[in-house]
Amino acid sequence: MKKYLLMGLVILIGSNVIALSGVAYNRMGAVTSQLTLTERELDLPYNRGAQQENSGMLLAINWRTATMAENTYNAYNTNETEVTQAQLLALGFEVPDKEYYGARSRQLYWALEFDGELHTAEIAKAEIRYQAALETYTLQPNEANDRLKDDSLVSLKKERLTNSRLFFVKASNDYESLAAEFSGQDHMLFVKGLAKPYYNVNNKRYRLLLSELLVSHILLPLEYSEVLSGLSRLGYQDIMAPRYAVQIKWGSRLEPWITNVTRD
User: Fold this and answer.
1) What percent of the chain has pLDDT over 90?
2) pLDDT tens for residues 160-219?
3) Among 12, 32, 56, 63, which residue's Cβ finds the most Cβ atoms within 10 Å?
4) DSSP string of the chain?
5) What pTM, to 2 d.p., does this model score?
6) Would you call 41 exposed, middle or buried from its count of C-beta atoms within 10 A (0-12, 13-18, 19+)?
7) Residue 107 within any structural domain of the chain
8) Is residue 102 situated within a structural domain?
9) Counting Cβ atoms within 10 Å, is residue 248 exposed (0-12), middle (13-18) or buried (19+)?
10) Are 47 and 212 a contacting pair, CB within 8 Å?
11) Paired residues of 128 in beta bridges
12) How many other C-beta atoms are found inside a 10 Å radius of the C-beta of residue 6?
């Protein structure tokens, strides 16, 4: 019995050493990204109380995809982007024909833009949608048009105040090419994520389905938890300015850690 307990203890210690070594290595190298995100990009957990009693809480990274340039404003995140077959092949996917649906997810490097041109464009599109709905209601003041006007106004307010400003820009097989392409742009974030292709039979185009970030949550250490004391996760209909800001660095393994938290 003692033998197995000892073996278990050795395995546990070894696992912790490996994990801590990875954390140390991530922070020893050059910082790959450094951003101050807010409640718009970092969601509080649903089960916050249970997490806080342990070793800290996990903040969920809230990222999104932009409305396609030729489309009207879309309030919902589709988590996909349009690509060509050549681009899919360059990303390492096998796409032998248009009926191919069996592609598996691959780990890719993602470039995300924070509070840049993509978000500005979303606000502009939301404004256009609201103005069009307002004009329609003015000309034809019925219940359906009134509802469309109100929904469009809510979407515009959320775009200005609460929606995430962290947008997917591009995926690549390697980090170096992304870092070189966006060199000098301090509003860019480089992360690892899973993605897979599919063929949209409706518009006969290929799409890249952005499944998830490899690191989708950031640990808020106990030393910063008190700053967010008393806050609960916002509901879908809540529209307000962000209540906190979090300074974050991403290291050589493209993994994040928090350096400061402030409350507004």
Assistant:
1) 65
2) 999 999 999 999 999 999 999 999 999 999 999 999 988 877 777 888 999 999 999 999
3) 63
4) -HHHHHHHHHHHHHHHHHHHHHHHHHHHS---EEEEEETTTEEPPTTHHHHHTTTEEEEEE--B-PPPTTSPP--S---EEEE-HHHHHHTT----STT---PPPEEEEEEEEESSHHHHHHHHHHHHHHHHHHHHHHHS--HHHHHHHHHHHHHHHHHHHTS--EEEEEEES-HHHHHHHTTT-TTEEEEEEEEEEEEETTTTEEEEEEEEESS-EEEEEHHHHGGGTT--PPPTT-----SEEEEEEE-TTS-EEEEEEEE-
5) 0.86
6) buried
7) yes
8) yes
9) buried
10) no
11) none
12) 10
Cβ–Cβ under 8 Å, residues 108 and 193: yes
φ, ψ at 53 (rounded to 5°): -75, -15
Average pLDDT, the chain: 86
* Angle formed by the axes of helices 143-161 and 117-139, nearest 10°: 160
Report how many domains make up the chain.
1
Instruction: Provide the pairing of β-strand 256-263 with 42-43.
Output: unpaired
**Domain around 229:** 34-116+164-263
The answer to whether 38 touches 262, Cβ cutoff 8 Å, is no
Domain assignment of residue 21, yes or no:
no
What span, in angstroms and rounded, lies between the C-alpha atoms of 8 and 23? Answer: 23
- On whether residue 215 sits in a domain, the answer given is yes
66 CA to centre of own chain: 12
Rounded to whole angstroms, the Cα distance separating 202 from 195 reads 21
Between CA 38 and CA 262 the distance in angstroms is 9
